Amino acid sequence: MADLARVVITGVGLASPNGSNLSEMRRNLLEGVSGVEPYEIRHVGKTFAGVCHFDPLRHQTRKALRRGTRAGSIGIYCANEALGDAGLELESCAASGTRGTATKLDRSRVGVYVGTTEHGNVETENQIHEVMEYDFDLKFWSHHHNPRTVANNPAGEITLNTGITGPAYALGGACAGGNLGIIQGVQMLQLGEIDTALAGGVSESIHTFGIFASFRAEGALGDHADATRVSRPFDKNRNGIVVSEGGCLYTLERLEDAQKRGARIYGEVIGHHVNSDAADFVLPLPQRQNECMRAALDRAGLEPGEVDLVSTHATSTPLGDVQEVSAMRELFGDDASVCINNTKSYIGHTMGAAGALELAGNLPSFDDGWVHPTINVDELDPDCELPGLVLNQPREVGDIDTILNLSFGMLGINSAVVVRRVPVHQH
Q1: What is the residue-wise DSSP string for 12-71?
Q2: Total Cβ atoms within 10 A of residue 228
Q3: Candidate list 119, 207, 224, 313, residue with the active-site label
C-alpha cells in the first residue's frame, strides 16, 4: 500500500461562546474567561448556556438568515473564516480576512464535512411551537421546514453560501461529531477525492428545550449560583453539563500543496481512530475509550509517553469524568510530563462542535508553549486525579509537539485525533 499523503491544518474558523476567532478564544482560555451565561428557554425556564456572539451578517444576508438555520449560519461563518484564515479564495467569491494575494480554489475540488448532533429536531420543535400559537393551523407551517431539517443541512447551507460544488455532507456522530468531520476530511484528501477540505463540527443545541429537559430528567444538567462556574469537570462538586452552541471548521490540505503555496501550517493530523462501546445508551465504557486512544496513537506511530497534551472530553458529569480519567490513567499511568486539560470548563458542551472547537483552543500551544488549564476546580475529585492535570492556572511547558484530542458521544461512540506540530523549516 502506497504511503498516504500527509494532511495539515492551514486555516481555522470558529464561533465559540468565549470567542469568535482563534486569537480571541485563545486569549480568553489563558486568562480564565468563561463564555457560559444565564439563559432562559421555554418550558425549562432559567438555566445556563454557552452562547455565541459572532456577527452572522459578516457572511450572510438577512434574507438568507431568515430562511436558513442557526447551525447553517454557524457553519457558514466558520467556513468563510477558515478559508480566509488559510489565505484561500473560491473562484467566484472572495473570503474575507485573506492575507495578501489569496490562492484561488476550484470549487468542485473542495469538500465540506460537518459533524453534528441535534440538527433537525431544533427546527421541528420551533415550528411546532409556532403553529401551536395558531391552534395548529398548518397553513402557518413553513415551506422551508424540509430543507431546514434534513441531516445534511449545515453542510448544504455552506455550499449554497460559498458556491462550493464538491462533496458536502454532515456526519451524525453525537458529541464526537467534530472529530469525525476532521477525520473524514483527512481521509478524502488522502483518497484524492478533493484538494481542500472544510472539516469540523457545528451545534445549535441551545435552541431546543428538549435537550435541556432531557439532561435535567437524567439529573445531568449543571447548576451553580455563578454562571461562569457551572461547568467544572474533575471538581468534586460538579453536577452536570452546560448545553452550548458553537462551531469550528478547519481548512485541511495535503502537506505538499500547502508547502507549494507557502501556507502557514497550524499542525499535521497524524493519527485518528473511531470505535464503539456497544454497551449502553449513555454511560461510557473506559475500556473502549482506552482502546480508541491506543489505536489513534498506533496510527500516529507514537507511544503514550510521546504525547505532550491531552485535550479531554470530560463534560462535568459525576460518572462520565471518572470513566474518562480511568481510561487515561490506564494509558498514561504516573507520567506527569503529559499535560491534560479541558475546554468545556470555559464554554460548556458544544455537542457536535466539541471535538473540533476544543482542539482549536489547544493548537496555539505549538507556537507559544503554554497549556490552558481546566478552570473551576475548587476541590479535585480524588477519583479524577491524574499527575498531568493542569488546573486553574495556565502552565508554561516550552516545547509542545503532539496533541491527543478526545471526543466521545452517546450510544457509545469514541473518537481520538492526534495532531503534530510541523517544524517551521518544513512549512
Answers
A1: EEEEBTTBSSHHHHHHHHHTT---EEEEEETTTEEEEEE-----GGGT--HHHHHHS-HH
A2: 18
A3: 313
Domain 7-260, CATH number (from 3.30.1050.10, 3.40.190.10, 2.170.270.10, 3.40.47.10): 3.40.47.10
**Closest to 418 (Cα-Cα) out of 262, 287, 305, 267:** 267
Question: How far apart (Å, rounded) are the C-alpha atoms in residues 305 and 295?
Answer: 15
**362 closest CA partner among 381, 344, 388:** 344
Q: What is the pLDDT of residue 101?
A: 67
Give which of 324, 330, 342, 234 is closest to 285, Cα–Cα: 324
Q: Do domains 7-260 and 272-419 have the same CATH topology?
A: yes
Q: State yes or no: is 53 an active-site residue.
A: no
Which one of 52, 78, 175, 248 is the catalytic residue? 175
Question: What is the pLDDT, as a whole number, of residue 118?
Answer: 82
Return averaged pLDDT per consecutive 10 residues of the chain, 427 residues in all: 88 98 98 98 97 98 95 98 96 48 91 92 91 92 92 97 98 96 98 98 96 96 98 98 98 97 97 97 94 98 98 97 97 94 98 98 98 98 97 96 97 97 79
pLDDT score, position 99: 45
Say which CATH class 272-419 falls into.
alpha beta
**For residue 245, what is its C-alpha cell?**
452552541
- Domain borders along the chain are 7-260, 272-419
Q: Specify whether the CB–CB gap between 147 and 120 falls below 8 A.
A: no
> Using CA atoms, how far apart are residues 370 and 241, in angstroms rounded to an integer?
27
Q: What pTM does this model have?
A: 0.96
Residue 349 among the catalytic residues? yes
Q: Are 105 and 252 in contact (CB under 8 A)?
A: no
Residues pairing with 370 in the sheet: 396
Per annotation, catalytic residue among 272, 273, 349, 372: 349
**Inter-CA distances, 199 with 155, 407, 417, Å:** 10, 15, 13
Residues whose CB falls within 8 Å of the CB of residue 384, separated by 6 or more in sequence, listed in order: 233, 234, 321, 322, 325
175 a catalytic residue: yes
The pLDDT of residue 425: 67
Instruction: Give the chain's length.
Output: 427
